[in-house]
Amino acid sequence: MTRTRYPRLIALLTAAWLALSLTASSLHLFVTPPGRPPIPVLLSVLLPIAIFTVWYFGSSRFRDFLLGLNPQTVTLLHGWRVAGFAFVALAAYNILPNLFAQPAGWGDIAIGITAPFVAYRLATPAHRRTFILWQLLGMTDLVLAISLGGLSTFMAAPGAITATPMAVLPLSFIPTFGVPLLFILHIISIAQARRWSPQRDPNLARELNAFPSRTATN
Q1: Burial degree of 214 (CB within 10 A; 0-12, 13-18, 19+)
Q2: Other CB atoms within 10 Å distance of the CB of residue 204
Q3: Sign of CA dihedral 140, 49, 116, 171
Q4: What is the model's pTM?
Q5: What is the CA 123 to chain-centroid distance, rounded?
Q6: So where are the chain's domains?
């Protein structure tokens, strides 16, 4: 498959994935009663990531296409995570449990607010480590949110507020589509950054080359 066809293919697969997620949500297939592990939601998170991983390592052309994406654009897509404020608001109205909503909400807000700065200032070889660290923090936020959401339902006492609303529309869109998609974007960004070198940044390369000569002069 040529590189020019990947954008259309990925768009079609993403649209199909979203449609499947919304359809399953409308049929309440992700809902599990309190006291039982939320296996359907967990599968909806892990399966797309697993498929992406197999495709990434199994196809060099697909991998090269992803690594050639603009890292600034990929990082900016995390900006919409400021919508995590909705979790905090829903917890204030006793719709979502604080155990889940507070860490997940404020974590998303932090990642969303800092995404533009990271995209425009840190998505360069000169800030490679900081860029990767931010991506890892974003992944940790997603893992923490899914884990706490599951625990707040599985371990809930009778009559307690649970994260069950996250398994029905419109909130189900987040764990069954948004979380795995954002996690995949983090993977792509880290894979890109791991291949960065000073030679890809002319200004940085000139600075590194000039450093020994300046030291010798001094």
Answers
A1: exposed
A2: 18
A3: negative
A4: 0.87
A5: 16
A6: 35-196
10 Å Cβ neighbour count for 149?
28
3-state secondary structure of 70: coil
Residue 75's H or E segment, with its range, is helix 71-76
Report in angstroms the alpha-carbon separations of 129 from 13, 120, 122, 197.
32, 15, 9, 12
Cα–Cα distance measured from residue 126 to residue 53, given in angstroms and rounded to the nearest whole number? 28
Both structure tokens of 13: 């697969």
φ and ψ of 95, to 5 deg:
-95, -35
Distance (Å) of CA 79 to CA 19, 35, 49, 110, 156: 23, 34, 21, 10, 32
CA angle 17, 23, 29 (to 5 degrees): 105
How far is 200 from 205, CA to CA, in rounded Å? 8
Mean pLDDT of successive 10-residue segments in the chain (218 residues)? 79 95 94 85 96 96 94 97 96 94 97 97 95 98 94 80 92 96 98 80 44 43
Please list, in sequence order, all residues whose beta carbon lies within 8 angstroms of the beta carbon of residue 106, skipping any fewer than 6 positions away: 84, 88
Query: In degrees to the nearest 10, what's the CA dihedral of 25, 44, 58, 201?
Result: 90
Here the tokens at position 92 are 């204030």
The pair of structure tokens assigned to 115 is: 């995404």
Q: How far apart are CA 142 and CA 136, in angstroms?
A: 10
